[in-house]
């Protein structure tokens, strides 16, 4: 067991290095980098200043930067060094969990992630929690009453929810309940109200849930179908196994058979995805949902970093998310053994 864990942890290193190396190499060939964007911005500002009768010392005429200014920008962003040296410096910083500083936000990438986490935790955690709390009982009920009217009606509802994109559903919810053309029941956006600091503890909880109701509903609706169908199929497979018929023949109550025997065996494929989903809940971000409901989270941060070519943010967030994802995969594998003692990783049978 310990040998397997050490082996997997050692395998994380080349996997992580490979992902970072590929992404870093692709970045080198992407046009419109931070230097080019800054040159265009400064050149436009200079051209505007000259057209209004102003000027700037040390700048080329006509609104264009000279070679010295461009060299200074390359030095400022660290592009005066060879790519391999920059990649090595980045790896050394990442090894010390120093994610560097953002080109455009003028603060550390780690602090940016921490600042955006409350929104992403709110979206991811509630989506994860409600998805599991709804889908597992619903999937079990659909398996027990397979082929009934309840099964058909619930299947229709979850498939309709799955077919509607979360962004479209969120827009519909805003129109209906966010002060659009119908009822102004929920706020248009934001995580809390402006008077948050003046509210009591109970009022703060109510205000927070009041703001999160619409975006969470939009995100959960699209996640119900996959988990519910998976739960139903797994339980149906277990219910139809021979040991269930044997237990029924012995006169065991149906509830005892379901909870004591079927539930534990059917839980294996469901629980193995739990660690990855749980860790991902703290770092998930939906760009469209965050934009629609004015929530400044990690999804919006990642999108802006790609558009602005904010490479420290792109590489820093990629490093953190990839590392956590690989660790979550390891925990998922280990959860197999925790759920089923017959499974182990020593290459021997028990």
From TrEMBL:
The chain crosses the membrane at residues 125-145, 157-188, 208-231, 266-293, 313-332. It is found in: Cell membrane. It is a multi-pass membrane protein. One of its GO terms (biological process) is transmembrane transport. Residues 117-332 form the ABC transmembrane type-1 domain. InterPro entries: MetI-like, MetI-like_sf. Pfam families: BPD_transp_1. Keywords: Cell membrane, Membrane, Transmembrane, Transmembrane helix, Transport. Its main location: membrane. One of its GO terms (cellular component) is plasma membrane. Signal peptide: none annotated. Belongs to the binding-protein-dependent transport system permease family. This is ABC transporter permease subunit.
